Amino acid sequence: MTDDGLLVVGSDRVRVSRKTQEDAMTDDGLLVVGSDRVRVSRKTQEDTMTVRLHIDWTACDGRGLCAELLPETLGSDPWGYPVPRDGTKEPVVPPALAEHARRAVRLCPALALRLRTVPEGPDGGGGLS
Fold first, then answer.
1. 82: Cβ–Cβ under 8 A, 6 or more apart, which residues?
2. Distance linking the first and last C-alpha atoms of the chain
């Protein structure tokens, strides 16, 4: 997936909106675009997408559970609020920590966490800072 929303398949380019990317991907790796089906390998999908942890700062009450469950990704400030270790607003969740991140989202008492899958930007991190 390129930055301008084009999926490159061989020498063809197909415009795919983010909504289409999320809704039209089938379990067998086919991307349905209109009446066409384009095979997209899992490797291609993984290489062009990044999982980020979104923190809803208005909902967070600083209990610190997320920092305990994801110490590699989050630290905490003196009041218990999460501080992303990579310095971004939405820290990248490495594939090895994906299950721990899902658990943190599930267990957050304030429901202030969610995972977002975003296309990688030119900086390799979804374009967020």
1. 55, 60, 64, 66, 67, 74, 75, 76
2. 20
Report pTM: 0.59
User: Which domains are delineated in the chain?
Assistant: 6-40 (no CATH), 50-119 (3.30.70.20)
Which residue has 């909902």 as its token pair? Answer: 59
Residue 68: other Cβ atoms inside 10 A = 12
Task: Could you list the beta-strand ranges (E) of the chain.
Answer: 6-9, 12-15, 30-33, 36-39, 49-55, 74-76, 82-84, 113-119
Contacts made by residues 36-44, CB under 8 angstroms, sequence distance 24+: 38/7, 38/9, 38/14, 39/9, 40/7, 40/9
Q: What is the pLDDT of residues 53-112, one digit of tens each?
A: 999 999 999 999 999 999 999 999 999 999 999 999 999 999 999 999 999 999 999 999
Tokens of 41: 């390998």
SS3 83: strand
Closest CA to 53 of 29, 4, 88: 88
